[in-house]
Amino acid sequence: MQCALYDADRCRSCQWLEKPYSQQLRDKQARLEALLAQQPVGEWLPPVTSAQQAFRNKAKMVVSGSVERPVLGMVQRDGTAVDLSACPLYPASFAPVFAAIRPFIARAGLTPYNVARRRGELKFLLLTESTQGGMMLRFVLRSRAKLDQLRAALPWLQQQLPQLEVISANIQPVHMAILEGDEEIALTPAQSLAESFNQVPLWIRPQSFFQTNPQVAAALYATARDWVHALNVGSMWDLFCGVGGFGLHCATPQMQLTGIEISAEAIACAQRSAQMLGLEKVNFAALDSTAFATGRDAVPDLVLVNPPRRGIGAALCDYLSRMAPQTILYSSCNPESMAQDIARLAAYRVTRVQLFDMFPHTAHFEVLCLLTRRGAEEGGPAS
């Protein structure tokens, strides 16, 4: 991938851009294999690759410059503003949105926030696009001071960009590099963006986490579904479930599924999807995943975990080791913490592993790992 910003040393977010993509994959696979070197792996499946550009469905743009000439992108440590609107990781559909937002900022009088002076109102713009073509736009503001002006100017922006189905304002008053605050203010009647992976309806709300590489995420969910369906699973927990992508893919009308996620926004999305699919034996709840699990006296046939970068931790590993569900399906965005957790799960053997290259041109990736209780019968390989 060619990037003028990288060549000009204006942005180095893609640390591996100069490395051929085939080498990137080999290096990631080697790192994963080294981390699991102490765990005999039954089957290594080949990495799932990504498009090398235009794969992101989300842009997180710092707004700097002036109200008349805003800059959408990032601010370097020396205070220099860098325009990232032409980043090749973004799809072509983002360009007209950025083009319309610049004059809109002036129309609405949204003065970009100046970090050094601690003045201004507009801190970030967060843009998300679904594979269905709809978009969600969030304005991250320092306060409510410009909300009336924003609302008054909004019809012009909606006329220019009818694809903006969900618009909101997030209030983030803290003078720190924090992307968003707790308060979200709806600016459109709709506050859920429709998405669909593998014919499974999903919903994205302003404060719910969603994967940034939809093509690879769809492959990840489909793989988890295939692995689970190859087993004799009557009951399942989906811990750290987010909007329910894994559980909803794996669920069958006969399966008892419980999905747990701390974010109420994400759980609302998961519940809506389950209703659309007509799944009657599914329950999603906004709770702490570790507290939920460790407070139970019994476990299901399969426990799926998709934790944040810190992993599932010692307490949940100890609980799973003691309660010994037949199968654990571990999805991770941090192979280091995953390897630490697997080492704690001594009662399990690693049956199958696959790398998913969710983040090309960086050292990051996702991994899916099937763990089978030692002595338990194992299902056949996924077809």
TrEMBL record:
Entry annotated with the keyword Metal-binding: yes
- One GO term (biological process): rRNA base methylation
What's the top EC group for this one? transferase
Annotated catalytic residues: 333
Give yes or no: UniProt keyword Transport: no
Keywords attached to this entry: 4Fe-4S, Iron, Iron-sulfur, Metal-binding, Methyltransferase, rRNA processing, S-adenosyl-L-methionine, Transferase
Q: Which InterPro entries does UniProt cross-reference here?
A: 23SrRNA_MeTrfase_RlmC, MeTrfase_TrmA_AS, MeTrfase_TrmA_CS, SAM-dependent_MTases_sf, U5_MeTrfase_fam
Under Gene Ontology molecular function, one entry of this record is: 4 iron, 4 sulfur cluster binding
Residues that, per the record, bind S-adenosyl-L-methionine: 211, 240, 261, 306
Which EC number(s) does the record attach to this protein? 2.1.1.189
Catalytic reaction equation(s): uridine(747) in 23S rRNA + S-adenosyl-L-methionine = 5-methyluridine(747) in 23S rRNA + S-adenosyl-L-homocysteine + H(+)
* Positions of [4Fe-4S] cluster binding: 3, 11, 14, 87
Explain the purpose of this protein: Catalyzes the formation of 5-methyl-uridine at position 747 (m5U747) in 23S rRNA.
HAMAP family attached here?
23SrRNA_methyltr_RlmC
- Family membership, please give it: Belongs to the class I-like SAM-binding methyltransferase superfamily. RNA M5U methyltransferase family. RlmC subfamily.
The record ties this protein, via PANTHER family, to: RNA M5U METHYLTRANSFERASE, TRNA (URACIL(54)-C(5))-METHYLTRANSFERASE
* Protein name, UniProt field: 23S rRNA (uracil(747)-C(5))-methyltransferase RlmC
Organism this protein belongs to: Pantoea latae
Q: What is the lineage of its organism?
A: Bacteria, Pseudomonadati, Pseudomonadota, Gammaproteobacteria, Enterobacterales
